[in-house]
Design goal:
Shape: globular
Helix content: over 70%
Largest sheet: none
Number of strands: 0
Number of helices: 8
Length: 191
């Protein structure tokens, strides 16, 4: 099963690298690739024994790694990732808010793993959630909060420096939307 995940991550990464080098438009390239691969993968999830959340995680990992390899602005890459995931998964009937949160969690965790700019990634994820929410009829505020919650969860898996970077990103309005969220308790914190 691990080979399937690694293969998916590499395939997405390679397509992102090629598309960005070819078009230069990181947001549109990422949206198109992520939506197309995810929609196809979700149709096949029952056949290959993978879940929609696993597919989203693999696609998110590949997109972040591809963007980092090319050295593009992670704000734009993360925005494209989020919009692409929402477009690609809407046919699966997944809960939009859960999808936003899960995508943000994986993207922030993977951004940290590769040493990427967490503040830029978190900002882009919230921007993408807001744009995707408008397309799917979810409130911008709810989408922004879900993206921020997921980003905090992913950062919490990495450490306090990551959490601080995400907090800095989401503490100011993004695309005119004030992000309101409940911060998760840090593991091991004593009050």
């Amino acid at each position: 099963m691990q080979t399937t995940h690694a293969g998916m991550i590499e395939a997405v990464k390679d397509k992102i690298v090629a598309a960005v080098k070819g078009t230069g438009n990181i947001v549109q390239a990422t949206v198109d690739i992520v939506a197309q691969i995810l929609a196809t993968t979700i149709k096949d999830t029952g056949k290959v024994g993978t879940s929609v959340t696993d597919a989203i995680a693999d696609v998110a990992s590949g997109a972040i790694r591809g963007a980092a390899q090319v050295g593009v602005d992670l704000t734009q890459a993360a925005k494209g990732l989020m919009v692409g995931v929402l477009r690609g998964s809407k046919e699966a009937g997944t809960e939009v808010v859960d999808t936003i949160s899960h995508t943000a969690q994986v993207a922030v965790r993977d951004t940290a793993k590769i040493g990427g700019n967490l503040e830029a990634a978190a900002t882009g994820l919230v921007q993408g959630a807001i744009q995707g929410a408008k397309e799917l009829g979810v409130s911008a505020e709810e989408a922004a909060a879900a993206a921020a919650q997921g980003a905090f969860k992913g950062a919490g898996e990495v450490g306090s420096t990551a959490v601080e970077a995400v907090r800095k990103a989401v503490s100011k309005p993004i695309n005119g939307v004030k992000v309101v969220l409940k911060e998760p308790a840090m593991a091991g914190s004593k009050n």
